[in-house]
Design brief:
- With 526 residues, this protein is an all-alpha fold.
- It has 24 helices and no strands.
- Helix 7 packs parallel to helix 18 and helix 15 packs antiparallel against helix 16.
- The N terminus is likely disordered.
Length: 526
Amino acid sequence: MKNEEQKKHPKVIEPGTLVLTIVTAALGAAIGMQLILTLGITANTAIIGALLAMIIARIPVTLFRKFRSIHRQNIIQTSISSATFGAANSLLIPIGIPFIFGKPELILPMLIGAALAMFVDGFLLYKLFDSKIFPASGTWPDGRATAESILAGDQGGKRAGLLGVGIAGGVVGSILGIPMSAFGVAFIGNMWALAMFGIGLLIKGYSTTLFGVDLKDSYIPHGLMIGAGLVALIQVSLVIFKKNGNSSSDQAAVTKSEKDTSRTLVQGLILYVIIAVILAVVSGLITHMSMGMFIGFIVFAAFAAYLHELIVGISAMHSGWFPAFAVALITLIIGLLIGFPPVALALLVGFSAATGPAFADMGYDLKAGYILRGNGKDQAFEQEGRRQQLIAAMIAFAVAVVVVLLTYKSYFAQNLVPPVDKVYVATIEAGVSGNVATELFLWAIPGALLQLLGGSKRQLGILFATGMLLTYPEAGWAVLAGLLIRAAVLKWKGTSSESSMSILAAGFIAGDALYSFFSSVFSLKK
């Protein structure tokens, strides 16, 4: 049975699978919207989707037995997680901005632009997955945690035992206030990148004590990310367009060639330009600006969305965290400095916020599938599996659009909007001074240098800036503690211990995700 499954991947369009895909997508969209509106965050529902499929597979009815297939379970987790992040982060956050801004007539144009950006977001990661920029061998912590959970449910044995210990540890640690996802990712991610991430978290958390400056009221972290992000874009370009010096091992390590990758990136930029034009035209923005300013807005909006996507994807791949809110705020600040009118700024930050989350989540989903399909050993099966996951994600995105379209008016009528939207609108109304530009420029320099020092594989600048943009010092301690334990175990047991540490780490992340999800739902009921 299992060998037969390996030869032919399940199809999303199979009636039973399609129905469950749509149902779980609607569930994920509803959960994501409720969480982002009331708590300001979005929980990872991938493991919830996998568990739901496992439970259904054990119902003693012939129709449900096919969901014992780990690949069908993977389709379901792809659907629910895509809809969760799509509805909450990619759609509801953007359309909440014009509502708070007092421009309800811009809600539907913003929804159109955000929806198009979301679909492009997921598609581009699908095309870029297993390239030199976003290799399948990358960490993608949430994806690995989901895959290990599904495998443990399917295989049992030692793997299930280790995962169970990890999940229990993740739940208990989370109850005690320990960021177990941060602790777990330290066991599987790039040690240099995560060390900088942890240091950035600690510096941000204790900046007042250490330096007498509260970085929460400063644009230093934003400047660091601007510098690191621009260098990262140059590094991406150099990796892609490098004609010589690629070893055969480098070529064999990924399945997407430099030519395919460069073509995808160019297509992505063109698509973002088209979406920016559509957004500007349907919103009537063209009537608010001169032609020169209008063209400048289109170019900047497309470039900002493009860079935002890459930064969020790189952060998510290495650390499991992505500073989507903060990077969108950087886009807004630069837009203010350029001098775009307020209405244009509202659309700009909404468009930027719509890109990134679906991109990162697709990376997690494809990583889970990559592990479940045997880490690329059967490339035909791997490619077919990715296509089915893409179809599942696109269906989930469509469901998310419908759910948001049907429900946003009832939420807005109660003045329920994502909390981060209030920050964006307040920033537009307050504006920024010339001193902000100087601060951004000065701190972009060390951010650029750090990214240059680490190179494209370590991403030191991006991860350090990510830590500096988050206010969560406990996660910094958890990351550094995890790295120290990992180093000690490797020195004691050698590389043979990496597999067990990986499963435990997946358990910690899964346990943290489960605790976060159920505690969020419980607090909502309260």
